[in-house]
Write a structure and sequence with these properties.
This protein is mainly alpha-helical. The protein has helices at residues 5-39, 70-85, 90-106, 112-135, 156-173; strands at 140-142, 148-150.
Length: 174
């Protein structure tokens, strides 16, 4: 006869956190795509003449879409999402995200500045979204020092409790 009130609240909280993750990655990716097409920085493998300073704004071609790196933007957004959800692991998560982003330089697809700007863009868009949600009491709550922590049911422990409850309810109705 439906989910218990507590389980429903957890489901809503987990859904809000999933929506936050999606909005962060997708939103920062769309913004990066807009910027890179407006800016038109040439990729390292297509250098000619002035090289790093070669710009072709509004070109809308992949060879002129290096700044900011879309992959690094996704890495920055994903790392910040995970760092906010798992605050205890924030440092290692952000370092791992930075390493993933730097592979774009190692592969010769981007300059370091493309990757640094992309990572920062993804992380910043994610933080803005998280702070906006915290102001509305959704997914996060701000601490006195300004840091954000996941709301109880929206955090990882809430996910496991929700999953266990849903499985138990399923077994009871089968």
């Amino acid at each position: 006869a439906g989910l218990a009130r507590r389980r429903r609240a957890r489901l809503v909280a987990v859904g809000a956190m999933a929506g936050f993750a999606f909005a962060s990655v997708a939103g920062s990716g769309l913004l990066a795509s807009l910027i890179k097409n407006l800016y038109g920085r040439v990729r390292p493998e297509h250098l000619a003449g002035d090289g790093v300073f070669e710009l072709h704004g509004l070109a809308f071609r992949a060879k002129y879409a290096a700044f900011p790196s879309g992959h690094a933007t996704t890495a920055g957004a994903t790392a910040m999402v995970l760092a906010l959800i798992f605050p205890r692991w924030r440092g290692p998560i952000l370092v791992a995200g930075g390493i993933v982003a730097l592979t774009r330089v190692a592969l010769g697809a981007h300059f370091f500045s493309d990757v640094a700007a992309g990572f920062a863009l993804g992380a910043c868009v994610t933080l803005v979204i998280a702070h906006r949600l915290a102001l509305r009491g959704v997914a996060f709550r701000p601490l006195a020092d300004g840091r954000l922590v996941p709301r109880g049911a929206a955090g990882p422990a809430g996910w496991f409790d929700l999953l266990a409850g849903l499985l138990a309810a399923r077994r009871g109705s089968a």
